[in-house]
Design goal:
The complex is a heterodimer of chains A (340) and B (341). Chain A is of the alpha/beta class. Chain A has 7 helices and 14 strands. In chain A, the strands form 5 sheets. In chain A, strands 6-5-2-7-8-13 form a 6-stranded mixed β-sheet, with helices on both faces. A two-stranded antiparallel sheet of chain A has the order 1-14. The N and C termini of chain A lie close together (8 Å). Chain B is an alpha/beta fold. The chains are: A alpha/beta (340), B alpha/beta (341). At the A-B interface, helix 1, strand 6, helix 3 and helix 7 of A face helix 2, strand 7, helix 4 and helix 9 of B. Chain B: Keywords: Membrane, Transmembrane, Transmembrane helix. Chain B: It holds the Pfam family VWA_2. Chain B: InterPro entries: VWF_A, vWFA_dom_sf. Chain B: This is VWA domain-containing protein.
Chain lengths: 340, 341
């Protein structure tokens, strides 16, 4: 008997494929993760709930909505989008104060609670009718600072009553130099719109009329042009004798004013609906480091799947192709000389 | 997340299309073709046939398990009914300015604790002891405000309690606050006991119209009512009737008349009068005990990740296939494509 010719024992590629698939599946079982650094934010969100926020000149997905509803929707989206690990405190603004509802809550685990509270914000929570925005921003900055958070103040910028013309905007400890973090968010339309009016039981009864709101701030010294006004009397009528007329019963987004406020306080400005709120927060609020662990198991799982498909589909098909090709020039076992 | 059958769900349903490749092993086998011309001459061997099919099925299992795992197989959130301790509590908290004074009615100095600080500390401990409860917070002063909706996210509830010692507002409109707290409990249709815990250091006259509305609302479903009255030094208290020469009406003694009103609602009602932090602690412990009744409640279980299980199944199936592959008997000398060497 002829000695058996030496054939190098080659490893079957199919075995290799199966081994690779097994190795990848075992790797997936070990739950690999990839940790990346993401930016999280600690925010104190203050929402203006004064009556001017009930003006329906904002929009949600193209449909008209009140400024408050648009603000609620924008903030809910923001909270859904910022990185897990971020914390949000919520306050409402009315009169001249930011009234804190809750201290910072982690946004992912606390999402249902935060979104639920946002959804129930209502002008009826307001404790007074005034809307002294600049004082409110000053108070809100204090609240946000006490919680070591950055401010997101959502408002239409409508001061009621109007500011004293003789006093420039001023903030305790901030002449624009003090670098504060956070932003003012403007909401509302550019054109003047009527402000809904509510009766004592909270039912809407038309719109505010010119005589319903103070049109002019008559505290402090009269303006320099007062002498030219009708009925001016230095002692008895220093502001003139006429009833002040104006547009204070109508409201629009006071964008220039809010941008001024931002400059004085060192806060950024973004407009709801025009600017991407999450992007604005990333730009103006401090980015705190947080780890986000990405689950790599699907990657390993799919790679194992691909290896298996190679074994089950590609390898057998390749074998079939090779055999077909050889059919033209058959090289049978016999023709090559039977082994052994 | 897309729901599959039986409460199962996947995160990336798009990957499920790969399941179409899963039956491949039934048709094609990764076995090395053998140089042996034909098996037709061999007798039927049922054990071998069964083994052959087992290995094919293992292939299908491995492929399917890998796809399901990569797609993020999980059991979706579900609610189950349990019996245990727990209830739905609406905390109705006074945020008027006087809450920031001490029990002696002064502005706190040095290490002194204000009423709101004492309430904050003790309510926080109360919530921490009750992990199964659903709790909501309504703040009230000039107007009632929803602070935290009814939720099982107790971290948010504790964040709401943490804010109660912030500067308060002017008035104590307890009537509308009660209406909002009741409204907050109205949403749940579960079987848990429902309670309102009113924490305040004062009361005000409740408008007759509001009283009527409250009576009607309370008549609908039973609610346990607790009033924790933080009594400042010198105030007359909620139980004592006035001396005979003094008038006895809501304008003069709003606290006493709120107590009478709450008692007249026909609900289980307890009032606690606390003159100091220890008395507050006792009262809260008492409420904790009263709210300890066994109830049936629904618990929402979070998603359970099944991807790990699916990977384990895939590993098991693959191990079986590889074992079979390594036991392959080589008949004749053939290369990997079945050519004779």
């Amino acid at each position: 008997m002829a000695p058996r010719p030496h054939v190098p024992r080659r490893i079957d590629p199919r075995t290799v494929g199966l081994a690779v698939a097994l190795a990848l599946a075992v790797a997936a079982l070990l739950h690999p993760t990839w940790t990346s650094r993401v930016a999280r934010h600690d925010l104190t969100v203050v929402v203006d709930i004064t009556t001017s926020m009930m003006v329906r000149d904002a929009s949600i997905e193209g449909r008209p909505a009140s400024r408050l509803d648009a603000a609620k929707r924008g903030l809910t989206d923001l909270i859904a989008r910022i990185a897990c690990g971020s914390r949000v405190a919520l306050a409402v603004f009315s009169e001249r104060r930011a009234f804190l509802l809750f201290e910072p809550v982690e946004v992912c685990s606390g999402y249902p609670a935060i979104a639920g509270t946002l959804d129930r914000l209502d002008w009826r929570m307001a404790w007074e009718g005034d809307s002294r925005i600049s004082k409110g921003v000053a108070d809100a900055l204090e609240v946000a600072g006490s919680l070591d958070t950055d401010l997101v103040f959502v408002t239409d910028g409508h001061e009621a009553p109007p500011l004293r013309p003789d006093q420039p905007l001023w903030f305790p400890g901030g002449d624009g130099d003090a670098k504060r973090h956070g932003l003012l968010v403007g909401v509302g339309g550019d054109a003047l719109s009527p402000i809904p009016k509510f009766d004592d039981d909270g039912h809407e009864v038309g719109f505010l009329a010119e005589s319903d709101v103070p049109q002019d701030n008559r505290q402090g010294p009269p303006p320099s042009n007062a002498e030219s006004r009708t009925g001016y009397n230095a002692r008895n009528a220093p502001f003139g004798a006429e009833v002040a007329r104006g547009n204070e019963h109508l409201s629009s987004l006071k964008q220039d004013y809010l941008e001024d406020l931002g400059r004085v306080t060192g806060l950024g400005y973004a407009r709801l609906g025009r600017d991407d709120l999450a992007g604005a927060v990333a730009r103006f609020a401090r980015a705190l480091p947080a780890n986000a662990a990405a689950d790599l198991r699907p990657l390993f799982g799919l790679a194992a799947f691909a290896a298996l498909v190679l074994v089950y589909l590609v390898a057998p098909l390749a074998a079939v192709t090779v055999r077909r090709r050889r059919r033209g020039a058959p090289r049978s076992i016999a023709s090559r000389g039977a082994p052994a | 997340m897309t729901d599959l059958l039986g409460g199962l769900a996947v995160r990336s349903p798009g990957l499920l299309i790969l399941l179409l490749l899963a039956p491949l092993p039934l048709v094609l086998q990764p076995r090395k073709p053998s140089g042996f011309p034909a098996l037709d001459g061999l007798p039927d061997d049922p054990v071998s046939t069964a083994l052959d099919w087992a290995i094919r099925v293992a292939g299908v299992v491995a492929l399917s398990a890998l796809v399901l795992a990569a797609a993020g197989l999980q059991v979706g959130a579900r609610t189950i009914e349990r019996t245990g301790r727990g209830s739905h509590i609406s905390l109705l908290i006074d945020r008027s300015g006087s809450m920031n004074d001490t029990f002696a009615g002064r502005t706190p100095e040095g290490g002194e604790e204000s009423k709101s600080q004492a309430a904050k500390r003790l309510l926080d401990a109360f919530v921490a002891r009750r992990p199964r409860d659903q709790i909501g917070i309504v703040g009230f002063s000039t107007a009632p405000m929803l602070v935290v909706p009814m939720t099982d996210r107790l971290d948010a509830v504790r964040a709401g309690i943490a804010a109660i010692d912030r500067p308060g507002l002017a008035f104590t409109d307890v009537g509308r606050g009660l209406a909002m707290a009741l409204d907050q409990l109205e949403g749940d249709t579960g079987l848990a006991s429902r309670s309102i815990v009113l924490v305040s250091d004062g009361a005000a006259v409740i408008d007759r119209k509001v009283q009527e509305a409250l009576r009607n609302a309370f008549a609908k479903r039973p609610v346990n009512l607790y009033w924790l009255y933080l009594r400042s030094a010198g105030s007359p208290g909620i139980f004592a009737p006035p001396p005979p020469d003094k008038p006895d009406n809501p304008q003069v003694l709003p606290e006493r008349h709120l107590n009478i009103f709450l008692g007249s609602l026909g609900q289980r009602y307890r009032a606690f009068e606390a003159e100091n932090a220890e008395a507050v602690a006792d009262a809260i412990a008492e409420i904790d005990k009263l709210e300890a009744s066994e109830i049936r409640y629904r618990e929402t279980l979070p998603n359970v990740d099944l991807a790990g299980v699916a990977y384990a199944v895939a590993v098991g199936a693959l191990a079986l296939i590889i074992a079979a592959k390594l036991l392959e008997v080589r008949i004749g000398n053939t290369d990997s494509h079945g050519r004779a060497a």
